[in-house]
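I would like you to sit down with the pair of lines that follows and say whether tokens and residues agree.
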Amino acid sequence: MTDLPGQELLALRFEEHRSHLRAVAYRMLGSISEAEDAVQEAWLRLSRTDVSDVENLGGWLTTVVARLCLNGLRSRETRREDSLEARLDHPRGTGRPGGAGHPVRMPDPVISREGAVDPQDQVLLADSVGLALLVVLESLAPAERLAFVLHDMFAVPFDEIAPMIDRTPAAARQLASRARRRVRGQAPVPDPDLARQREAVSAFFAATRDGDFDALLALLDPDVVLRSDGGVARARQTVVLTGARTVASQASLYRNLAPFVLPALVNGAAGVVCVVEDRLMSVMAFTVTGGRIVAIDVIADPERLGDLDLTALR
């Protein structure tokens, strides 16, 4: 390998870190395409930089990707173009920021068949990074998100995180701690048993199909949250609802779609895609804890759906 031309050797060394960098960027940005762009930009910067004195290339690249993502998040915050608040003047629902009543940008889901995850996506699904967790991460301030993601998910020391956000290590630790409290309070941990998750999701659609309101109430956690992103084209479907009775009432609207749902893994957890006449109508991710559904995250935005890669389901 040492006989390879310098640029080829550098490319090989970069490829050794690509999966890790992609995972960092996905957790930071919640967007697969933006994560890929950040990783590609990191390669371009590496190819133009003399790193002969860099002892830890992985750490150097992680810092570059993290800074790129931080800039992207700050720019997104300024423009608010990707925020659900920008799509609706008066979003429906009530509740805490990042939860009901304060819709946040819905992350891109990673969709696959059960038991058949694309190796390229496997790293994105490590550590049970469910869609519900990514939704909560979207509600964090950029510096909070960076500190939490890098430290809690990738074990980057605070003395390395601090310069990225122009804070002291103590301040970076405080940001991560604050983010951790919010994540623990708002991002439920799914049951590790996928079969149990699937059983709850199947029962949900059976009850929806049969119009069995009581069965739905039994399946839903009393504090269940339903978040739906309909985009501009389906703005009326952009809602955040809380409470078993409210969500069960909303579920009746899915009755006609029940025959068209196909089971899928959405970010490694039980979910479904709804396909009508070869047209993808929605993606639904379920978080099941203790056998009950605690969160339902729905993407119904035609523009977002058109960008999703469903080849893994075929």
Q: What stands out?
A: The chain is about 45% helix and 15% strand. The longest strand covers residues 279-289.
